[in-house]
Amino acid sequence: MSRGASQVAGCRDWLRRHPTTSDAAFALLVNVTALIPYAARPDAADVDLELTTVTLISLTVGSLLIVLRRQAPWAVWLLTTAVGLVAVVDAGGTTPAFLPACVALYTVAVTSPTGRAAAAGVVSALAPGVALLGLGSVNVIDALAYGMTPWSGLATMSGIAVRNQRAMVAAAHERARQAEATREEEAQRRVAEERLRIARELHDVVAHHVAVVNVQAGLARHLLRADPDAAAEAMGHVREASQTILDEVPGLLGLLRSTEDELDTAPAPRLGDVGGLVEQARRSGLSVTWETTGTPLELPPATDLTAYRVVQEGLTNALRHGSGKARLVLEWDAGGCHLEVRNPVQRPSTESQGSRHGLIGMRERVAAVGGTLTAGREGDEWVVRARLLAGVTA
Which residues are bridge partners to 343 per DSSP? Predict the structure, then answer.
């Protein structure tokens, strides 16, 4: 930006911050502009353009009223029109002293609806002619000319055009603001969803193996002296589970550091891999009974992963909070599959154990793929049931 443009912009900003001062300067400009025809034509008396005392007072009063045009546009328009009519009648025809009334009319048109602005324009255009007709000194055509119809029409149309342009600019700014707000909300929503997804993955992958480590470490400590071989086997399970954690955590942390295009992940686990979960749970000391009925169907990828995670969470809870036994049932039908994991309750209430993040994560996962899940105590057992549909994707 050039120095001159910068100075102009600075001056404009200053006037915008001081509207009363700006209007006072503008009123002075209007007054000087209206006086120019009188000063430029020394033979004004020969063309019916004479600066009388009434004209000078009317022009001065009208110019002073312009200072208040922002605060009370309609009142200023009425008053400037009245003093302008006085000057018109005194001059017996058109006079520059009516200029403040045109400025006030422009302000009314800028700040009022189109209908009311047009009505004010008609009044300003006809009032001087009507006043002159009342004097009986002019005919109708002359009266309309003396009524300064072009001035009033120009002021009205200019004000309406400026108001519409400002409305369009304001609407564009509002749309831009809303679009920016929508983008921000969308970004926050995506961040929240990603955080939930990572939290689920951390819980599903890590918590299961941490539970194995906890159980097997406790078993090894109990058998360390009584049965060193069994304790050594338990520690082997601890090492296996901890190694799995060490292998999985860097990949999960990579989700936080990489974009989706940069990720090179292994295939997601599926319900067909549940045999590995059962075998791992059995090696950890959980006695698992597993039965499948019906003909297995091909599930959508997201649903398949969800089924695997539900089984994983159910077996992990049975290992952590149960009495050492669990029953897994997979029932297939034409619409999808039913999953059920149940285990005897060792403690008075399984619901009160832990942070329940696993249960929350299961509900969110199942709901995301259009399924249903229930979990709760039934007699002396804790039962997790999920219904997953073969034709619904996330």
Answer: 382
